[in-house]
Amino acid sequence: MRMNRRELLSASALLLAGPGFALRSAAAQTAAAPTPIVLCWNENPYGPSPAARAAAAGAIDTGCRYPSDADLDDLVARIARKEGTDAQHIVTGTGSGELLCALALTLGRDGGEFIAAGPTYLELPEYAEGIGASTHFVPVDAQLQHDLAAMRAAVGPKTRAVYLCNPNNPTGTALPADAIRSFVTSLPAEVTVIVDEAYMDFTTLPGVRSVADLVDTYPVVVLRTFSKIHGMAGMRMGYAVARPELAARLRRARMTTPNLMAVRAARASLDDADFLSSTRTKILASRTRITTELTRLRRRYAVPQGNFVFFDTGMPLATFTSRMKERNVLVGRRFAPYDSWCRITIGTESEVEACVQALRATLA
Question: Does residue 263 sit in the same domain as residue 292?
Fold first, then answer.
């Protein structure tokens, strides 16, 4: 290998300065590198609320203890009041993801089949596959919404449950409650409908609301989480609303015990209405900021009802993500078969402004 004069002088200078200089120089370059703006995980950058943070911090001193029955019972009672039901209908979990897995285990064993949209959130289908169940994916329609007619037609003798992520991840589209009710009433009585409402707090369309009121009348399970509007994704707390007999089966299928900090933080967050309202307002305003820019850039997007936007970049996704990364913005992965579409999470106002500038430079 040959070195030119400039390279030789630079190498000599480094050797004379000693090995510590090279290490310090590398560290300085690393420290100077800007922190990437992470907009690929559907996280809420504004939470946890001040009340939740204080509750979690206050629980550290008793972190050597398991959550008491009083802690868990109080959280469940507060959730039940919020949902207009009683404690027998509520099952807590380490995020709604654990409860999706518990539902897959409870309903899908012995070769059962699930029906789900394609694309959608995959925690339940992937866990179901691991226990020997299968999932029939039904493509979303031209508006990137659940195609309920096609999903109903896909129900067969082995179908145990239909999974509706509403609003859907990654498309962000949402179904009205009346459409879900009509769909539920059309199904055989032995088919359970699992409605994942992780993003329900960000919806704005008329008629889109929780369907927890269906639980007592029909075989419906509704899932909610503290990971989104409550900003507690890293603390892992969620819950299901189900009729008591199914709720009891879900409790037996849970894999872990809720941690004390998450229990107390969740309890405090439920009461912090002002913070939750402020967070929702900021996220919805930033969501509109992104869709307004996409409209200006003439990029098609699905009608967003979550804390993210799914849109057509007009180029291979790998090219788009690489160009956005060059501008220090990390965006979502590929969701087959939408090879040119990207999901961008709503960040803080300053992060969204940086994202808009990157979109202009990348898509203009």
Answer: no
Number of Cβ within 10 Å of residue 143's Cβ equals 11
Burial of 23 (0-12, 13-18, 19+ CB in 10 A): exposed
CB 102 within 8 A of CB 297: no
Q: What is the pLDDT of residues 131-153, one digit of tens each?
A: 999 999 999 999 999 999 999 99
| Cα gap 28→339, rounded to integer Å | 38
Dist. CA 73–CA 67, nearest whole Å: 10
Residue 92: which residues within 8 A CB-CB, separation 6 or more?
A: 72, 75, 76, 79, 237, 238, 239, 258, 263
Q: For residue 69, what pLDDT band results from cuts at 50, 70 and 90?
A: very high
Domain holding 321, by residue range, is: 32-46+274-363
The rounded percent of the chain whose pLDDT value lies above 70 is 91
CA 121 to each of CA 112, 208, 228: distance values in angstroms, whole numbers, following the listed order: 19, 19, 14
> Tens digit of pLDDT for each residue in 225-238?
999 999 999 999 99
Please compute, for residue 224, the number of CA atoms within 13 A of its CA located in the half-sphere on the CB side.
Answer: 22
Nearest to 314 by CA among 345, 344, 342: 342
pLDDT bucket at 364, cuts 50 / 70 / 90: confident
Examine the fold and report which residue of 253, 270, 287 is the final residue of a domain before the chain moves on: 270
Q: Find residue 154's DSSP bridge partners.
A: none
Q: How many distinct structural domains can be found in the chain? A: 2
| φ/ψ bin of 93: left (φ > 0), alpha (ψ from -120 to 50), beta (otherwise) | beta
Q: Quick: pLDDT tens for 213-265.
A: 999 999 999 999 999 999 999 999 999 999 999 999 999 999 988 899 999 99
pLDDT of residue 32: 54
Same domain, 248 and 340: no
Answer whether the bond into residue 167 is a cis peptide, omega within 30°.
Answer: yes
